[in-house]
From TrEMBL:
Membrane topology: Peripheral membrane protein; Single-pass type II membrane protein
Family: Belongs to the glycosyltransferase 8 family.
Annotated organism of origin: Adineta steineri
Name of the protein this chain belongs to: UDP-D-xylose:beta-D-glucoside alpha-1,3-D-xylosyltransferase
Domain TLDc: 410-585
Length: 1143
């Protein structure tokens, strides 16, 4: 990256001669607009909104940048300055300007329906999103561009070939991996390409992610993109009707014309025009593109009417030869009156729904299928329904243009494979197939097949019989679930036949309903596995069954799929000569679990701490990203954020985003609804009105605790049939204890009613049936008879509409009622408790001490502590104290499922180790830290579940750049802080982590850092600092283990060092300092200090500074052996080799 004072361009991807040319391309009238006072106003304005610490003061503004708020008044001032000021494309202000305005969050001075906080206001690590170097090879594997890119409109601008193009591809493939829900997003490529002219790849990833969060990319599916094009056409008719009429006359196919509107700006306008438009876009959003596009087409029609040379034949010609300055173009764009962002969003939303309604699809997740791929009708027989008749409501079958990896098999031809691929859920049909198992390659053994697919969630089993018939099943469900359940899987599964006829048999639960619960369970028998067979589809017959030899099988009608037998004979044989049994899965299917989960909670009064504990429990056990929708009172909002920033570490804060909403009852009578039962509890009923752009949410009461991965609960949405819009659990399992069946004075659902503490809500369906209006009518009729507020209203509603409820098991909503006398939630005995519901103040009441104990363990658990020992073991220990109570008689209920979750998390969560350096202006320290960190990688085993996070305190940007270059090849997560602190005890004032190891760089690691970090677990209750204070060495503060949160709680700071008691200090064992007089102790030592053995330190320092970390063991051993008189040489060599083996 070039020095910001010379030019802002990225030297890595733009040639030097191109930069010179760009510097000469000053925009029209730019000198007239270089208004110094406006420039100063801009700096002052952004400085007043807390961005002065990085605006125009750093060469890398993505470092230490935070989401900032800006008021309406300041936003309008900023908008006026940016609109009216035209900087040259080489002006150094642009790089910092774009970074700053993209991080602004506008806050209205008037009361808004919600406040949004995308990211915590903390420094964002520069390496929080990484680009895998292996993506260099993706150009050959994936036909050069991800599926969501429009390859007919690639915009490289001034990027060099091939380095610039290759880096752009790496960025786009990174987004393809991290955002699998992007099925069609053409805007992402030109935006990334443009930003790459000014920023490095990490900054581009950060900024594009901001645009994705804001939904400013004109669509993330083909349907949304088409909706935006249709809206542009409508706006043209609204604002320039005569122009729209002229287009109708000029172009026979206006659809093609309007589909190109985005590319007029990004592909055909001069680069200097585009850059200026982006100045406005990054502040104001997509409405700028609409304004400019409308102005362009209006000016185009005016120009061609008066142009006689014929040089301008179409919009592309007009944009490339545009006869007016950028200043005039923007004036025309801003002259359009009353074109508001809200208007555009409403039109796009309406248009998208309209397009949805015109798509023929059997399921909501397939609505977009015919629009995502080429509409090529392969075979009219593909539209046969289960009875062999043409189904008018089934999607047209199409050839996926992206399907570049159709494997060659002896089972399916190309047409059959494409037919099958079109039957898949859209999100999977847009991925690439991956062959996992064939009988020809892997043999005829069921156990081998199960080993291959154990951790696969989506797979296709295809069989060709000795008679030539082809059929199989799509298996939606994690195969490892077979260990926990008899039948497993979910409703996306289906059976199919491909030869002699092509038929898909979907789950009947998507089309049918039944009041008979036993019959309903028979229709949810998706997958079954034991040592003797695999079954797909059960219920009065096996849809498809294969025995352990993988040679024989049977097929019959089953209730789950209501299928005909899949072949002509009920029993079939699989040929042993060819791979006539194969199984596919999907590349990157694990990424689909990263789609955010929406979790909603309502917090009023004294419930703040309880709500925070509920959210904390969801975060602990869920690797997937979460979005918290919090409805709360105004005075609690800031306290929410303050506690999260203070108590929740950076690594966990990056896993979620928060959206705040005021308490609002959208249908009137606020006071009546607010005071019904408990304060604000009825807010849940109005969520569909408020979260209008959200499809589904999980709602939980504040007095709930997750003892499981939230993703597992979210998956229950897949079990909904076509009419179900909510999921709840029964109020009781034992009729003798039921409240509704004994006391209710109103109708209620089922035999014993429903409990609403945990609720899955399909908001889209709730809006479609106008559920809120019906509940309002119910309230008018029964408000004198209800006891439990919104829960009673929901019971009455689902009594009238039982087909709309899905009932899940009590382990997802386990309450004191389930064990106060004896355990009456039978499934909890088998599977354990997944959500604990502490209703009736059970978490704070000594009457239910087991519930209180669980609550306190989670509340006191530190985020970066070990889950197995500090949380699970502590929970088991505490529960032993209540073994005589009814709930405490079976403590394993509380920990059984939790133990499974933690064992899974041990493999999916990275443990974060925090290291802090304070450099100030000490360049020697920076040089030494490079060797220290290199030694840490050299001598430490590479546990892939561990990650080291460096917190680097500097006072100037030159030091930062130097340090970054020193360690750029090392895999560390880094956060930089501009601060003048000088002592490690001051770290508690700027770091938002629980524990950190401070290091003075004058040392070398000779063993794993894990050992040093594990000493935190040796701290006793009052000990908050660890140091080598009792060893024969000077500088005992060279290594400090600091418990920062406890230091804050005890108010231990730099000024109060002398008040620190020895009771607060844990003295680190001296054996961890290398004793070169006893070489056999090397394997136990951790650190070699410069002042302990200057000679050995110097030798190792020189070796490590020059050594290549990826060299073989032999090469490293040879280099060590070349050092003359090296003490403990053999022991050091053995230590390095042993650790290198584990890498």
């Amino acid at each position: 990256m070039a020095d910001g004072n010379s030019h802002p361009f990225n030297n890595d991807v733009i040639a030097d001669d191109t930069i010179v040319q760009l510097q000469k391309q000053l925009s029209h009238q730019q000198q007239h607009h270089q208004n110094i006072s406006k420039h100063k106003d801009l700096i002052d304005l952004l400085s007043s909104n807390n961005t002065s610490n990085h605006f125009l003061n750093t060469n890398d503004p993505s470092i230490n940048i935070s989401s900032q708020t800006i008021t309406d008044d300041d936003f309008n001032r900023l908008k006026s300055i940016i609109r009216s000021t035209i900087w040259s494309i080489d002006n150094s202000i642009r790089r910092q300007l774009w970074m700053n305005i993209l991080t602004l969050n506008r806050v209205s001075t008037s009361k808004q329906p919600n406040e949004h906080r995308h990211l915590s206001q903390i420094p964002i690590p520069t390496l929080s999103v990484t680009i895998d170097n292996s993506l260099f090879s993706l150009t050959s594997k994936f036909n050069q561009w991800p599926n969501y890119v429009d390859t007919t409109n690639i915009c490289l601008y001034h990027l060099t070939e091939p380095s610039g193009r290759l880096l752009l591809q790496r960025i786009l493939f990174t987004f393809a991996l991290h955002h699998p829900d992007l099925t069609y997003c053409p805007a992402l490529e030109p935006f990334s390409s443009l930003l790459l002219h000014y920023f490095n790849e990490h900054e581009v990833l950060y900024l594009i992610n901001r645009l994705l969060i804001k939904h400013w990319l004109c669509g993330e599916t083909r349907l949304q993109w088409e909706a935006n094009c249709n809206v542009f056409k409508k706006l043209l008719k609204l604002y320039y009707k005569s122009t729209a009429d002229a287009i109708e006359l000029r172009y026979p196919n206006t659809k093609i014309f309007y589909q190109e509107w985005f590319w007029w700006i990004f592909r055909y306008l001069p680069f200097s025009y585009l850059v200026k438009i982006m100045d406005c876009f990054f502040l104001e959003g997509p409405k700028i593109l609409y304004r400019v596009g409308l102005a362009l087409v209006h000016l185009f029609i005016k120009t061609v009417k008066n142009e006689s040379s014929g040089s301008i034949r179409n919009m592309a010609d007009f944009c490339q030869q545009i006869p007016i300055s950028i200043d005039q173009l923007l004036r025309a764009a801003f002259h359009i009156r009353n074109l508001k962002r809200s208007t555009i969003e409403q039109l796009v939303d309406h248009e998208e729904k309209l397009l949805h309604s015109t798509r023929h699809s059997s399921r909501p997740d397939e609505l977009d299928q015919s629009n995502n791929l080429n509409n090529i009708n392969i075979n009219s027989n593909n539209n046969l329904n289960n009875n062999g008749n043409i189904n008018n409501h089934q999607s047209i079958f199409i050839t996926p243009q992206h399907l570049t990896r159709i494997p060659k098999t002896s089972v399916l031809d190309h047409q059959q494979f494409v037919t099958l691929w079109n039957w898949l859920p859209v999100r999977l049909s847009l991925t690439q197939p991956h062959l996992v198992f064939t009988t020809q390659e892997h043999g005829f053994r069921l156990q081998t097949l199960l080993e291959k697919i154990n951790e696969i969630e989506y797979s296709i089993l295809i069989i060709k019989t000795t008679n030539g018939e082809i059929f199989g099943g799509f298996c939606a469900g994690l195969w490892s679930d077979r260990h926990n359940k008899t039948y497993f899987g979910f409703g996306e599964s289906f059976l199919f036949t491909l030869l002699p006829k092509q038929t898909k048999y979907s789950w009947v639960g998507q089309q049918q309903d039944s009041d008979n619960r036993q019959h309903q369970l028979k229709r949810e028998l998706f997958l079954f596995v034991n040592n003797e067979k695999i079954i797909i589809g059960g219920g009065n017959g096996d849809g498809l069954c294969i025995d352990a030899s993988l040679c024989e099988g049977r097929t019959a009608h089953c209730e789950t799929f209501n299928n005909e037998p899949l072949c002509s004979s009920p029993y079939f044989s699989i040929s042993m000569n060819l791979n006539y049994l194969i199984l596919f899965t999907f590349l990157h299917t694990n990424i689909y679990a990263l789609k955010p989960i929406h979790l909603t909670i309502v917090v009023c009064g004294y419930r703040l701490d309880e709500a925070l504990n509920a959210l904390k429990s969801s975060l602990i056990f869920t690797p997937s990203p979460l979005i918290f929708h919090i409805f709360t009172e105004d005075h609690l909002r800031e306290e929410f954020l303050r506690k999260i920033d203070l108590e929740w570490p950076v690594e966990y804060q990056s896993k979620f985003q928060i959206e705040f909403y005021p308490i609002q009852f959208t249908r009137g009578n606020d006071e009546q609804w607010r005071t019904l039962f408990k304060p604000c509890c009825t807010q849940r009923l109005f969520i569909p009105d408020v979260l209008k752009n959200i499809d589904s949410v999980i709602y939980v009461d504040t007095d709930t605790l997750f003892l499981s991965n939230v993703r597992s609960l979210w998956r229950l949405f897949r079990k909904f049939n076509s009419t179900q819009l909510a999921a709840l659990t029964a109020e009781h399992e034992d009729p003798s204890m039921g409240w509704y069946n004994r006391f209710a004075r109103h109708p209620y659902y089922g035999a014993m009613g429903l409990n609403s503490g945990v609720m899955l809500m399909n908001l889209t369906r709730m809006r479609q049936v106008d559920m809120i209006s019906k509940i309002m009518d119910i309230f008018d009729e029964f408000h004198m008879n209800i006891t439990w507020g919104d829960q009673c209203l929901l019971n009455i509603y689902f009594n009238y509409y039982p087909e709309q409820i899905y009932e899940f098991s009590c382990d997802w909503n386990y309450r004191p009622d389930h064990c106060i006398y004896e355990n009456n939630c039978q499934i909890a005995k088998t599977d354990g408790i997944k959500i604990l519901h502490g209703c009736r103040s059970a978490f704070h009441n000594d009457k239910y001490q087991e519930f209180k104990a669980i609550y306190q363990v989670i509340q006191n658990w530190k985020f970066d502590s070990d889950l197995k020992f500090s949380l699970l073991s502590q929970m088991k220990t505490n529960l032993k104290n209540y073994s005589l109570t009814n709930c405490g008689k079976a403590p394993e209920l509380f920990t059984k499922h939790l133990s499974k979750e933690i064992s899974l998390l041990d493999h999916s969560f990275k443990k974060i180790f925090h290291i802090a350096f304070i450099f100030n202006n000490n360049w020697n320290f920076i040089e030494q830290s490079h060797v220290l960190l290199k030694s840490l990688l050299l001598f430490s085993s590479n546990n892939t579940n561990n990650q080291i996070h460096l917190h680097v305190i500097l006072t100037d940007n030159h030091s930062q750049n130097y340090f970054s270059k020193q360690i750029e090849s090392m895999d560390y997560l880094i956060t930089y802080y501009n601060s003048t602190i000088t002592h490690p005890f001051q770290l508690s004032t700027i770091l938002n982590v629980d524990r950190v190891v401070y290091l003075n760089p004058n040392m070398i690691f000779i063993n794993s850092f894990d050992k040093l970090w594990s000493l935190f677990d040796q701290f006793k209750s009052k000990q908050i600092i660890g140091m080598f204070g009792q060893c024969q060495m000077s500088g005992s503060s060279n290594v400090l283990l600091l418990h920062l949160n406890e230091m804050k709680n005890m108010d231990i700071n730099f000024e109060r060092i002398n008040q620190l008691s020895t009771d607060n200090v844990y003295f680190l064992p001296c054996k961890y300092i290398l004793d070169t007089d006893h070489c056999q102790s090397v394997k136990h030592g951790l650190l070699l200090f410069e002042n302990i053995n200057h000679s050995l330190f110097g030798s190792l320092y020189k070796l490590i500074s020059q050594i290549d970390l990826i060299k073989s063991n032999d090469a490293i051993e040879n280099e060590l052996n070349q050092i003359k008189n090296l003490q403990c040489r053999n022991e050091l060599v053995n230590l390095i080799i042993e650790n290198k083996k584990t890498k």
